[in-house]
Structures are given as structure tokens and as C-alpha cells.
Design brief:
six-stranded parallel sheet, Beta-Lactamase, flat, disordered N terminus, eight-stranded mixed β-barrel, 993 residues, 19% strand
Amino acid sequence: MRIFERQSGWKLSLQSLGHYWQRVLALILATLLILSLQQLGWGEALENQLYSSFFHWRGALPLDQSVAIVEVDQASLRQLQMSPWSRSLYRQLVDRLGEANPAVIALDQLFEGVDPEDLELATAIAQQRVVLAQAWKSSQPLLTSPTLTQAATALGHIEQTADPDGLVRSVTATVNHLPALGLAAIQVYATYTGRPIRPVQPQIWLNWENAIQQAAHYSAAEVLQGQLPPQQFRNKIVLVGSTLNRQPTPFDAASPAIYFQATLVSNLLQQDPLIRISRFKAALVLLLLTLVALSGARWHWQQQIWLWVSLGVAWAGLSWLAFRANLWLPVALPLIWLLSVGGLLLLIRFVTTFFELRQNATRYTLMTQGFNEGVWDWDLKTNRFYISPRWKQMIGYSEAALSDQPQEWFDRVHPLDRAALDAAITDYLAGRGSHFEQEYRLRHEDGSYRWMQGRGLAVFKVGKAKRLVGSQVDITAQKQAEEELWRSTFFDRLTELPSWTGFVDHLQQAIDQVQQDAQFRFAILWLDLDQFKLVNHSLGNSLGDRLLVAIAQRLKTFLPASEIVARLGEDEFAVLLRQIQDRDEVIRVAEQIQQELTRPFNLEEHEVFVTVSVGIALSAPYYAEPEHLLRDAGTAMYRAKAMGRASCLVFERSMRTGMLVKLRLESDLRRAIAQGMAQGERQAGESLSSVTDLPVTDLPVADRGFDAEFAELPSTLSNGAHPQVSSAISSSRSDELNLRLEAPPTPSPEQYPELELYYQPIVRLSTGQVTGFEALVRWQHAQQGLLFPSRFISMAEETGLIIPLSWWILRTACRQMSQWRQLFPENAALTMSVNLSSKQFSMTNLAEQIHQILQESQLEPTSLKLELTESMVMENAASVVDMLYQLRALGIRLAIDDFGTGYSSLSYLPRFPLTTLKIDRSFVEKIGDCNDNLEIVRTILALAHNLRMDVVAEGVETEAQATRLREMGCEYGQGFFFYKPLNVEAATQLLAK
């Protein structure tokens, strides 16, 4: 009894020790997680994010009524025609504000160096209570003018340290014996008004109160022009600062820096700056809560989840309440700590339980296998054969039904499996194998056969087997599943024809036979039902499936049994013709199949007629892989399909050459677009920084860079063909079967883009003045030289590359026009005309994308004119009105290109918010030869002018054409008579003249 108690005590101690180390492990891992987050800077980032979120959740608070803000903004500077750093400007502000008798004026402007206007400014400062800003560079003060420092009532530093997210959350109360600018203003204010001010901490944590729109602020122009009553500033702290310097706040992404000082002053006046609880104190409280919670480590896992989640919610609530009381209690890391400790404890518990269950499951599996398997024991010396009751039950016999002779086993084995079973046993007993294992069929009592798997080990004595002991398990269900898997792999479920995999297997056998017998020839026919989708959509999938079954049955009935018919895809079949004589025979068989399938199919009450397009590939010694033959047959089929319904075509090697040429051009265009976008991003950064005074960090940055945009370049996908050959089949019809191409690598910065925009001037006919440009793309191909759009635009539309190409053209043209407007401000009325593709026009977020590009390029919307083809607009006139109005609402001008060449529903034309009609060159070039064309042009001009639109005539090539158009009232012309399309340098020189 004592021994039992002692053993039980040790067991209890070990178990308790295990629970103890589980808790210690959870604490160590959670601590490592927190330290890692801190080391990576993520912990501080999370805290700062929650810090900003708390202000949003709390909402805005009013600034103290004793604070007034005067903004030196851009509008005031333009109106007053002064520099933001002008001493004269601030002297006038101090003089005018002094008339209102403010309590103190704080100038958040650093007056560096010595200036001739310092004396006048100092005179104005000396007459008021003014606090000046001070800062240091390399420990040297920047405000060095003794005239100003002596005249100021006080000096205050404006040193700030921003967190990684750019937000300034605190300010040091005193730097180099100078108080912060806001604190200095408060001290002067307290002296003047006698209002008591609470002592401040060495580090003042800002309690951000509201957004810039909610604060009382006035412009410098309003102050100097006397538009404000004096009581707006009387006995107040007036903060004066420029709006050029901006920094983020929890409420605004870019707030003028003067609002930082306003928040500091308001906090000090209302005595509500944040007080940050030390991390040490917070950690102690958190550790105490954790230790208390660890006492429930043995609770049920659901109770533990509630415990740790409740602790997390409680800490979050405590942090929120503390924040409302102007206390900043750490939130993110404590929550991560609590949830990670609780989660790790649960994880450790689950892992421990998992391994325990796994061990139990192993024991259970072994036990159930022992019961489920039939055991047998063959005494080789006496030839006695023991079989367990379970062994007998497997084949439907009772326990006493069979004798103890080996024939009870062997005589029931399927005749086709008997020899293999005998050989396996003999080989094992002869020492050829570590154990006996064999699958065989065993006859059931009802006469059927069941698949069994037998395993066994021999008992050897003096090198000779004495007994063979083993087990037997029923694997019939497994064999049936394997059979089903085999049939589903090699046969089509619907038609019961060989599937793609099965057909490839037959095709491989035929190829092997060609390698062995040079006289053997075969062919494959790839059949594609024409417009099967129309049948499917009109009659339904059920009748569509019945049609496929009927076609399969008719093909099998029509062709000899030696030929292989397979189903390759949804509406595609293949035929393997063996022992053919010549090409003509194959074509004849293909035409007979086409003729056979033209007979109607009666499906319920419907009589359905179908036609097929056939592609033929003939065997040849150079075909080593089935996929190559299928690739070429598919190529021929799609070429035949492109020729029209019920066509038949034999593959020629020239088809592959044409396909590869097209693929190469498509791949080159992808690379050219990628290089163009990458170069455009770099040029945008360089040119913008060279023509603006803003720092690079203040420039607008595109939400989506080149990498993300290039990742969305469409890659043509195979649709309807097996993936093993989809990369090799022609892309003749991109909506049915295209080639998968890998996206080209991102070009290095040294590579010059092949795509280039040319700009053709648009001229005012009355004066000859250039009023705008049309952007035209050119492709300087590395091997083929200069390619015009007619060579690659149609291919881009087929493959979807037109979308990234069009965006690149629009973005590049907008950036170029923005640069020209900045370089030549006297040509502010210039417009850039860009053609819009039909696929772009079908995008629902088109207006948002274009608006983003205008913002990126800093281009006024009125400088952009989008040209749409007549067919794009008129074919879906009712549905495009909203999109046109969205674009027009942005301020963008809209033009109909090549007007008069398509079908126009004039009833819709007045509803479109168009600004321009462009007369097609086909009318302009014959304007002097044909009166009909002259009247058409005259009619278009009258129509456009009646609808308050201007007109651009394209293709003007002679002076007579230009004169006639001008006489008829046409406003603008474009063509070689005026200018050919110019590259950027030539167009820039033209503007410079």
C-alpha cells in the first residue's frame, strides 16, 4: 500500500511538473514573439496605428477658444504677391494683428540669417508680445539675427521627431534651455492674462483634437486686407505660420505644420495633454493578469478560450477608458501577449492531445486490423492449414464449413491468378524476398470472386521453412475503385469513348509502330463541332449531352472497329486512322465523316443539324511524341475553323511557322509594353523633379506601380484543349484556343523602350496656330525596325494586350502634356488627343482609372481629349451615355474619331456630351474631286456646329484642302500639309518656337 502511494505520488508530481513546463514554454514563446515584433519595429507600428485609430473613434474635440490661427497660404501669397519667407509679410501681419490687441503672437516661421528687413520686423515685434521660432543645425542656432532675438518677447524651439509613419506624437518641453514654441507662447500668455498654467512633463504627448477643417483659421490675405473684425484676435494666442510645410495627423494625411503648434497650445491651455503610462508599470499589471490566468490552465479548452479572450477584451476596454481620461496605455503588444500566451497554451495542449490520440489510434488500428483480417497458419511439415473464422466469413462460409487442408485456399483461387500465387510463395520460401505478399481473386460461396491480399512470414528452423503464417484482407472495394479510376482516366464518362489520356496511349502505340515499321502509316483527325455552344444554350445541357452521345455512336458505327474514336474536349472528337495508304484517302474519310454527321439527329421533338471542322495530321518519322501530332492536328483544325464551317484542312509545316511568327510578335509586344511602362515610371520621376520645386517625397505616387500593373498583363490561356499541348496550338481564334506565354522579365533601367509616342500637331485653320497634339504609338522593333500600328494593334486587341498598351499610351501622353504645360505656360490651351480602345471603354472603372492618371501626371482634365471611334459609341449607344457623362464630368473633352465612316444613329448623337467631331481622311482627300464628298463634309460641319461641337479635319495634305475647309467653317485641321507626327524632341522644339 505504501509502495502504491509512493508511486502515485511520483506520478502526480511528474504530471504537475509537465503542466508547469507547459506554462513556462508558453510564456517563453510569447516573450520571444513580443521581442521579435519589437526588434522588427512592428510592435511600435501597431501601437502607433492604434494611437491614431483611438482619436478617430473618440471623435474631434474643439480647440481652445483662446487660440486663433493665421495661415500664410498659397492663395494669400499669390494675392499679396509676396514670398512665404518675406520679412515684410510678417511685419505687416504683426502690425495688423497688433491693432486687435492679441495676448501673444507666435510666429511659426524660422527667420534664418540676417536680412535688411530685420530692423523693420524687429520694430513691429518690439511693439507686441511676439514669440519667435528657433531651431538648430549641427548644434548651431538658425535664428541668428540679434535684432530679432532682442525684439522678441520670447523664443521657442520647433524641433520635432517624427515616428516611422511620419506622425509627430510628442514634443520635448525644453531643448537647449528654450521651451517649445507653443509652451513659450503659453508662458507669455499666462504672464499677460494671469491665467494659471499647470507644470508640464519633460515630454509632452499630444492629444490631437480635430481636423484642420474644424479649427478656427484665417488667411493672411484676410488679415492684411482688414476683412476680419478685431475681436477675432483680441486677448488670444495668435499662431502665424505657412501652409507649405505639411505633416500628417491622426485626422489629416497632410496638415499644415502650424496646426501642430495649435494642438500643443490648446492642450496646454485646456490642461489635457496625454500622459503616457510607462511600459514597466503596464508590463507589471499585464504579468499579474497573466499569472492569474495561468491558474486556469487545466480548465476545459472552451473555458480557456473565453478566459483569454475576456482578458484581451478587458485590456482593450481598459486602454480605451484610459485614453478617454487622457492616459495612453499600451494596447497592441499587451493584446498580442495575452492572446499569444493563451493561444500557445491551447496549442501545446492540442498538440499533446493529438499525439496521445494518434498513439491510441495506432493501437486501435492494429487491434481492428487483427479482427478484420483473416488469419491463416500453414504447417509445412504436416501440411495442415489453419484458417480463422474471419477468413472463412470473407468468402461466405461458416466456421465449421471448411477443412484444414491447403486445398481449401488454393482450389478457390481464380484460375488466372493461381500460377502467380504459387510463384510468389515459392520465391519467398526460397529466400527471394523479405516476406510473402500477393493479390489474387478468391471464389465466394455464392460463386462470385472477391479480390484478396495475402501477406505472410515464414518460421525457419535450421535454414528451412517450417511454417508459413499470414493474414488475408478483402480488397474488393479497393480494386473496384482502381478500376473506376482507370476508366475515368482513360475513358470519357458521357460517351464511353477513350478520353484524352486514353487516346494519347493509343497514339503512342501507333508512333512506336512507325518507328519499328517504316511502311506503317496512320493519321489523326481532330473534329470540332461548329457552333455547339449555340445548341447547348438553346436546347439545354441535357440535350447537348444527348447530342454528343449520338455523335459518338454514329462515329463508332460508321468507322471500322479497328479505328479509334475518342472525345478530347467538350465538343471535340478525334479519330485515329491506322494503315492508311495516302493523303487523299485520309481526306476522303474526313469528308465522309463530315457528310455522315450532316444527317439530322432526332432528339425528342427536336431535329438537330451539325457540321464539323476537321484538322488532319499525317504520321511522319520525326513525330516522337503524341502531343506533337495533336498539336499539329489542332493547329490545322483551328485554321479550318477560321475558313468557315464544315471545312477540312491537312496540317502543313508552314502553318506552324506562321503561328510561331505571330507568337514571337506577341511576346515581343509584351516585352515592349513592359519596358515602356518601366521607362515611363523612371522618366516621370526625373522630369517631375526637374520642373517642380516640390521635394520628391511630396510628389504624387501612383497607387499601383509597374510591377503590379505588369503582373496584370493578360496571358492567353488554352480553352478547350488539353493543357499538355495548349502551349503549342495556334492562337488563330483567341476566344477558343490561345497559347500560354510567360510574362517577360522586368527590364533593367539601362534598356531603352521600343515603344515610342509620336505627336501630330492639330492646327487652327484660321491662324495656323498649333492648338494640340494627337498621340500616335510607334514600335521600334529590335529586328523588324519601325512598325506602324497597323502591324500590331489588331494582334494586341485579339490577345488583350491592347489594355496595358492603351493605358501606357494615355499615361505617357498625359505626362508629356503636363511637362509641356510647365515648360511653356504661355501655351496653356494646348490639348492632348488620345485614342480610347473598345476594351478600355467597356471597363466599369474607366473614369476612376483616367482620373488617377490625371492626378499622377498633374494634368488638368481640360487638356485631355479622348477620341472614340464611331462604332464604339453607336453600336451600344443606349448603354454608353452614362460612361460618357462620367468622363465629361471630370472635365475631359470627348471626340468622335473618323466620323462618317460607320453607322451613326443620329437620334443618339445629341444625347452624347461630345465636344469634337473628327472628319475622316477619306472625305477630306477627295474634297476637291467629288461634290458628294464636299456636301458630306459640309453636312458634318453643319451638324457639329448645330450641336455646339468643333470639328477637326483629318488627313489634310494640300493647301487647297486646307483653304476649302477653312472657307466652310472647319475650325481645325490635322495632316501632312501642316506637320507629320513628331517625336518628343521635335514637338518640344516646335512649341519652343
